[in-house]
Amino acid sequence: MISGISPKASHSSTPNYSYVPKQAVSSVDEEKLGAGNLLYQINGTNSSLFSRKLRILDSFDDEYGGVIVDSERLPANPNVFASMLSFSISHWKSKGKKGIWLKLPVEKSDLVPVAVKEGFEYHHAERGYVMLTYWLPEGPSMLPANASHQVGVGGFVINDKNEVLVVQEKYCAPQFVGLWKIPTGFIVESEEIFTGAVREVKEETGVDTEFVEVVAFRHVHNVAFEKSDLFFICMLKPVSTHIMVDDHEIQAAKWMPLVEFVEQPLIQQDCMFKKVIDICVERLGKRYCGLSVHQVASAFDGKTSSLYYNVIDSQHNNCIGN
Question: What family, per the record (predicted)?
């Protein structure tokens, strides 16, 4: 979700001097005629000519003084769009608007060059659309930037035999061939950290687990396409033991004795890997406290959030804080 583009339920209207309601000219006529000679006679004693070029694009006002163009009511004809967009920018600028958000669905991708030529910049893209922005006031843009991070999870699963659930990836860098590692993956849209960790373990190994705690997280920059990366290591409790390998991503999976897992040369030689495992081992010995998840509501946005924090309860103490 992009901060600063929450729409209000109001459409922008045509300028006072246009006189013509939107329904006076159908979108069918618009597409047939293009942007060349879009002149229409207005009925009445004071008849005048009105050019469809002077209609502004349907839009919503956002709560930050900006405009969100209605992507479902865009003209399909690039020439019509070019004229309407140019006039809309002038209109919104005269009204003191700030940022413009223009979402172009893939089926109208031929409108992208038109918007870019008008001065719009790429903001982000998904499979079905590209989002472009335009900052109207003088000076640097104050619109929020695109997402800066990707979020990954790793599941540290250990059974009552002191065995760790580990995998070997089918596709990996040459230096990691043969390494047994914990199941890892990326959080998908609208997914919680703890449910993502449980899902990744299930997908890669077939083992069902329950979330216990976040024991640590790593932050690193310039990873994928210059984006930063947050990686959460989650301790999980197994509720099943049978392994079914996902042969699309995973070469092999097994329950590995903890000592054998820790003593792998690649683990011992890598400071970060070794520290992560050391923390997990400390947590097993109750000499370290992780972060458990709590659902809390906020009056700021009216939503329930997952807040991760440490609680040491003397009645249910499972760790000793330092």
Answer: Belongs to the Nudix hydrolase family.
| pLDDT of 69 higher than 70 | yes
Q: Which has the higher per-residue pLDDT, 61 or 314?
A: 61
Q: Report pLDDT for 23.
A: 34
pLDDT in tens, 11-31: 333 333 332 333 333 333 333
Check: CB of residue 89 under 8 Å from CB of residue 135.
no
Instruction: Quote the tokens at residue 106.
Output: 């893939």
Alpha carbon 36 to chain centroid, angstroms = 40
Closest CA relative to residue 278, chosen from 261, 291, 293:
261
Report CA-CA distances (Å) from 52 to 12, 59, 75: 16, 16, 11
What the chain holds in terms of domains, given with CATH numbers, is 7-135 (3.40.630.30), 149-285 (3.90.79.10)
Q: How far is CA 93 from the centre of its chain?
A: 30
pLDDT in tens, 113-143: 999 999 999 999 999 999 999 999 999 999 9
